[in-house]
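Ticket #4471: structure export looks truncated?
Reporter: QA, pipeline team
Priority: medium

Steps to reproduce: submit the single chain below to the structure queue and open the exported record.
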Amino acid sequence: MGNTISWKAFEYKQKEKTADWYWAVIIIALSIVVISFMLHDGLFAILMIIGVTILLFFSSKEPRVIEISIDPRGIVVGKDKYPFATLEDFWVDISDDENHKILLRSKKHMIPLIVVPLEEYHHLDVRDVLLQYLPEKEIQEPVSRKIMEKLGF
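Actual output as written to the record:
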């Protein structure tokens, strides 16, 4: 019988967005919309407008505090459940001093990588519990995800 641990963390790290950030997003989006209309691609322009509107709406949203737990059945992140049977391996990423996280490789093709924030729980304790259920294998976070985090998305 394995251990059960739980902790709370913000669902994502919120970056402070200045007025310049919002203006840059709007200017880039408007440029793409104008080019789309010039190329007679009105549908893409409309999709771009909808996408940027949603992006701007969610960019000002405060992150929720979520409950995370690991028990013998799997990992629960907020309302999402990830049974160990659907996971291949894990890696505890402590390369960023401020942003420790668990990277889980899923067997499901629609969600190949699951990133779980590790805020108040000690990473070695989490690693010890996960080793009871999954093999440890170094997983690199995709560069695109790192770039998006740096840009504040």
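Status: closed, not a bug. The export was complete when the record was re-opened. Leaving a note from the reviewer for reference: The two ends are 39 Å apart (CA to CA).
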